[in-house]
Design a protein that fits this description.
Layout lengths: L1 E6 L3 E8 L2 E9 L3 H15 L6 E6 L3 E2 L4 E2 L13 H9 L2 E6 H12 L8 E6 L3 E7 L2 E2 L28 H5 L1 H8 L10 H21 L3 E5 L7 H14 L8 E3 L6 H12 L2
Parallel strand pairs: 1-4, 4-7, 8-11, 11-12
Antiparallel strand pairs: 1-2, 2-3, 5-6, 8-9, 9-10
Bound molecules: zinc ion.
């Protein structure tokens, strides 16, 4: 039996499943570390009816790829420098693999979602923050740490991001940026000037990432993308305006949302050894 766990700043999701399908799934608020690991242990017991073969945990970065050790995730309390793989393999008595949350979502979308049959697949989540993951030949691209292309710097000076950088993609385009600029919920800003400006910056960031990786498709998930055409039209327009040296790349909505991460985690649990 394979288990996928997706630990986000507000929600934790735990599911069992196989071959792109979820069998049982639980969703609960993310607590500080000590309570959080207890909640996850109980949830794993509830969703698993037989012996667990492997568990994959998707987490916000940065993560040291070789060891599965977290650095200092800005949105998780008490998780700084925790070796998540070691901690959970003891608690769950199973093999545990730790991976960047956006990268596992990228894997799910590339195998069973909007990126199926395409290679490489660039996946982007745009919600409170922005994250990117790349799947090449069916495998997650990794560096020493998971790459943080959602934090790519787009200008010399400007707003400071929660990560400490100035004028990075997240500080210019994420939901948190729209909220800081206007004091309003991003959902109430769809179609406004602030919204279009943010989507233009997002298109510039995506153009840079297309130039770096030359993906066959760009798949976008996350809360802001739920605005549909009012999200995708300005983003596609921006990429069309900025990308010159390479042909245009299809930019499409995630097909497995909101389960892209869980399905990707279960897939990685099935395929890693
Ligand atoms: Zn940042």
């Amino acid at each position: 039996m394979y288990i996928g766990i997706d630990i986000g700043g507000t929600h934790t999701r735990v599911a069992s499943g196989a071959q792109g399908k979820i069998q049982q799934r639980l969703d609960f608020p993310t607590k500080e570390f000590k309570q959080g690991i207890q909640d996850i242990k109980e949830a794993v017991q509830k969703v698993s009816s037989e012996k667990i073969e492997r568990v994959v945990i998707g987490l916000p970065g940065p993560i040291e790829t070789k060891t599965g050790k977290l650095l200092e995730p800005p949105n998780l309390v008490g998780w700084d420098r925790v070796n998540v793989a070691d901690t959970f393999s003891k608690i769950l008595n199973a093999q545990v693999v730790v991976e960047h949350d956006v990268s596992v979502a990228a894997l799910g979308e590339s195998l069973y979602g909007a990126g199926a049959g395409k290679n490489p697949v660039l996946y982007i989540t745009v919600s409170t923050g922005i994250g990117m993951g790349l799947v090449v030949d069916g495998k997650i691209y990794k560096g020493v740490y998971n790459p943080e292309a959602g934090e790519q710097i787009l200008s010399k000076a400007g707003p400071t991001c929660s990560c400490g950088q100035e004028s990075d993609l997240e500080s210019l385009s994420a939901g948190s940026s729209l909220k800081r600029l206007t004091g309003k919920d991003p959902k109430d800003l769809v179609g406004s000037k602030a919204w279009t400006d943010a989507m233009d910056w997002l298109g510039i960031g995506i153009t840079n990432s297309i130039l770096h990786y030359s993906p066959e498709i760009v798949v976008i998930g996350g809360g802001l993308s739920e605005a549909g055409d009012r999200f995708f039209d300005p983003v596609r327009k921006s990429v069309k305006k900025h990308l010159k040296i390479l042909p245009q790349v299809p930019i499409v909505p995630a097909a497995l949302a909101p389960n892209s991460g869980l399905i990707g985690a279960i897939t990685l649990a099935e395929t890693s050894n």
